[in-house]
Amino acid sequence: MASEPQNPAEAGLRAVQDAVGGAVAAQQRSVSLAQDWAEGLIEAYKGQAESYRALTDAMRSSMEALEKTLQSQEETSRALKESLDAYRGVIERANETQERSMQFVQNFSENVVETLRNQLESSRSLLM
């Protein structure tokens, strides 16, 4: 133990210096651990923020696609309704035309029958 001081004051000073040095080293380790923890936490929050940003972008894209799909479905439904309405109109007009044609044929047939009756009666009266 050749490095031990001979004077008690020097020994006390050395002990205080060692104690303070140990306390300072422990404090530095604590600060370093706290700093590492804080940096790790910051990195975790940055990663989480990036994940949320990506999720938000994905949801925005999904919503835009859904809106386009709904708009397309609305346009398809509108076009289908217009087509069905036009088809219904064609069917109704064809039905009306058919009814008029039937009425015309019936009137024509009745007129022909009436004309033939009249001619028959005229022929009978001439023969008698």
Question: How would you describe this structure to a colleague?
Answer:
With 128 residues, the chain is an all-alpha fold. It contains 1 helix and no strands. The chain is rod-shaped, with a radius of gyration of 54 Å. The mean pLDDT is 90. The protein is 94% helix and 0% strand.
In short:
This protein is mostly helical. It is 94% helix and 0% strand.
Radius of gyration from the alpha-carbon trace, in angstroms: 54 Å
Number of strands: 0
Question: Roughly how much helix do the residues carry, as a percent range?
Answer: over 70%
Q: How many DSSP helices?
A: 1
Major sheet, described briefly? none
**Approximate strand percentage:** under 5%
State the separation between the terminal residues, measured CA to CA.
174 Å
Q: What string, H for helix and E for strand, traces the elements in order?
A: H
Low-confidence runs:
none
* Inertia-based shape: rod-shaped
Q: Can you tag this structure with a few keywords?
A:
1 helix; 0% strand; 128 residues; mainly alpha
Spell out the blueprint of helices and strands.
Layout: H1 8-127
